[in-house]
Every structure is written in C-alpha cells, then in structure tokens.
Q: What sequence folds into this?
C-alpha cells in the first residue's frame, strides 16, 4: 500500500510537471508565432505624383511605433503624414527617406499613414519608388530589452512579463469585442422595435384610409342617388 501511494504521488507530480512544461511551451510558441507574423513589414510601390495611405484601428492608450524606408529617386521628394480620423497630425516629414516615429493613442480611433510623392514639372518618366513600412503597436512595440535593463529583470522574468502583456492585450481585445457585440445587439433590438412600431402605424393608417374611403364612396353614391 505504501509503495502504491508513493508511486501515485510521483506520477501525479510528473503529470503536473509535464502539464506546466506543455503550457509554457504552448505559450512560447503562440507568442513566437504572433511576433513573427507581426514582424513582417509592408512594402509597396509609390508612383510619381501619387499618394497611398494605410489605415488601422488601434485601441486607447496603446504605444505605436513605426519604421519606414524609401528607395532613392533622382528628383522630387516624398512626404509622410500620420494622422487620426480627426485630421490631427501625429507625425510629419516633408522629405521622407528613412526614419522612425512613435506615439501613444489617446482614444480608440482609425489612424492613417500616407505617403505622397511630389515631382517638379517637366520631369519625364520616373520609376516607382519602393516604400517599406513596419508599424507595431501594443506588445509588439514594447522594447523589452530596455525594460529589462531599467528594471534589472532576468531573462525568465522578461519572458513572463511579455506573456503577461500579451495575455492582457488578448483579454482587452475580447472585452472590446464583447462590448461591440452588446452594442450591436442593442442596436438590432432597437431597430427591430422601431420597424415593428412603424409597421403597426402603417397598418393603422391603411385601415383608417380604407374605412374613410368606404364611408366617402357611400356618401357620394347616396348623394348621386345611386344607392339608397
């Protein structure tokens, strides 16, 4: 009996260790996959005297960083503007070739990064300009190396902090989705009630109009002595 109890305790401890290791491995894989997928920069071609914009919805109080690089062009210059939906300029560069920018959002909004090419008049055919833009926000934009130096964190503590921030961002995303779902449900219910009231009002109007037509025609025919 004592041997069986010891064996059960050892097996339960081994299972707990395996579960913890699997959970840590799964969390690390998910984090690595998300960071690898989000680390891919966006590249596109900007034609001469053209304009291209990229938009993205970002939550409130979120750090946003960006790094851009444009290929060289013999003449002309390119502009970069980062604005919100209200038109407030968060970053501007009239002669954009290569650089970085960063800002923190004050409210949930749609942010826009626009590249615009300006060529002097009389310029002949010019090849398109290659633009590479790498924007990150939230956990992706946090520099954990600097954070580890400032707070003197160990590598394991840095990974735990990263996982904590990632889980918090996921929870916030789910909370926002739940809030939007509640708002959409309330909107659908209010719209349904309005349609129901409008349908009832339309039916009452039609019934009233039909009744009035019957009495009017009856009075008209009596006046013409067509019916008694």
A:
């Amino acid at each position: 009996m004592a041997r069986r109890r010891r064996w059960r305790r050892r097996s339960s401890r081994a299972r707990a260790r395996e579960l913890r290791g699997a959970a840590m491995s799964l969390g690390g894989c998910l984090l690595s996959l998300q960071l690898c997928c989000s680390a891919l920069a966006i590249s596109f071609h900007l034609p001469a005297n053209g304009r291209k914009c990229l938009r993205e919805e970002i939550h409130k109080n979120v750090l946003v960083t960006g790094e851009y690089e444009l290929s060289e062009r013999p003449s002309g210059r390119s502009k970069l503007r980062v604005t919100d939906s209200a038109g407030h300029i968060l970053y501007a560069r009239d002669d954009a070739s290569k650089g970085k920018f960063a800002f923190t959002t004050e409210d949930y909004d749609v942010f826009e990064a626009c590249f615009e090419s300006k060529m002097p008049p009389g310029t002949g055919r010019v090849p398109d300009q290659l633009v590479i833009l790498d924007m990150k926000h939230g956990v992706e934009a946090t520099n954990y190396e600097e954070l580890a130096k400032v707070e003197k964190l160990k590598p394991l503590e840095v990974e735990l902090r990263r996982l904590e921030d990632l889980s918090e961002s996921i929870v916030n995303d789910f909370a926002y989705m739940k809030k939007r779902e509640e708002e959409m449900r309330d909107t659908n219910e209010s719209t349904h009630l309005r349609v129901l009231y409008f349908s009832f009002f339309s039916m009452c109007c039609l019934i009233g109009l039909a009744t009035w037509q019957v009495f009017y025609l009856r009075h008209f025919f009596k006046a013409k002595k067509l019916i008694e």
